[in-house]
Amino acid sequence: IALVGPQEQDFDTLARCADIAMYRAKRRGNSYAFYVPGEAGEVTSRFALEGELRKALADGTIEVYYQPRINLETGRYDSVEALARWHHPEQGAISPGIFVAIAEESGQVGALGRHVMEVACRDLVAWRKRGIAVRMAVNLSVFELQDPDIVLRIARTLQHHRVDGSWLEIEVTESAAMSDPEANVATLEQLKALGIDLAIDDFGTGYSSLSYLKRLPADFLKIDRSFVDGVTQDDGRSIDADIVRAIIALAQSLELQVIAEGIEEAGQEQFLRRHGCQLAQGFYYCKPQPEAAMLAILEAQLEAGSAG
Ligand code: C2E
Ligand code: CA
Ligand code: CA
Questions:
Q1: Three-state DSSP state, 98
Q2: Looking at ligand 1, which residue's alpha carbon is closest to its atom 11?
Q3: Ligand 1: does its nearest atom lie under 6 Å from the Cβ of 289?
Q4: Distance CA 233, CA 26 (A)
Q5: Per-residue pLDDT tens for 152-204?
Q6: Are 188 and 216 in contact (CB under 8 A)?
Q7: How many CB atoms lie within 10 A of CB 106?
Q8: Backbone angles phi, psi at 257, to 5 degrees
Q9: What are residue 137's DSSP bridge partners?
């Protein structure tokens, strides 16, 4: 909602003010918001970013970084997550939390998702040719999940790059998966039919319907970083530790594997290992890396493996 004031006399300005209020409302979820005078600077920069993102996507300058997950049983990296990176020419690195939201609000998230999927498949095939048998996880926004062409598009990309579906994992947040249960189960089952694994991301942060979770063709639950944050070594008792234990137990009874994200210290790993978590990802092991650095890490692991 934007109100006409002394500075908002023309339609375009008023519409832009309404837009920024809408952004704020969207961030809060199902809500409404009034434009606050003075937000105009933010409007302008947000609109500029929208245009610049469009250009960066067209130029192919959005990069894809990779963060590995360690298999806690073997101690080896067996998969990586693709994470989009935007290095703005003047503003430097812009957080994906910001530009993914801008992409979603400005109808560009399909283009962003296609770009990330392209690059991830290309890099994955190059690694496989070097004998590196890791799997690749790609994030899918709720808007992509609702795109009626999504399955066909992903199938074509796999075919184009000769990527086997079983090499790929799709991460969908819990709230996205729960957004339109009937339609999403159908879409996710079609992706599963391509051999793709499904991970429920940010698990524990949304409103979970356990009966719906049971119907989802999921393979992995990803425990959100916010819970892992609250777990420390001697911490048998905190609420976060209780939640993490409960999620692992839930996953076990639904026969899903558990990935914990955001591990930053040894104590967290010990806790997770002790409670039966299979996979872990976090700065403690490795920060997201550009392709060349990730390849070097995976090659070193391959050599160490064949030597011993
Ligand atoms: P996410 O899917 O939950 O990704 C995990 C985020 O946690 C990443 O942030 C990663 O860098 C960060 N992280 C990993 N380990 C640690 C740790 O030990 N400590 C801390 N503090 N952080 C850690 P990033 O790359 O900033 O991405 C933020 C979010 O943006 C992602 O959250 C995801 O929702 C979204 N995103 C990123 N790339 C894409 C993409 O290509 N497509 C879509 N749809 N969303 C993306
Ligand atoms: Ca993710
Ligand atoms: Ca997360």
A1: helix
A2: 288
A3: no
A4: 38
A5: 999 999 999 999 999 999 999 998 998 888 899 999 999 999 999 999 999 98
A6: yes
A7: 17
A8: -85, 155
A9: 81, 169
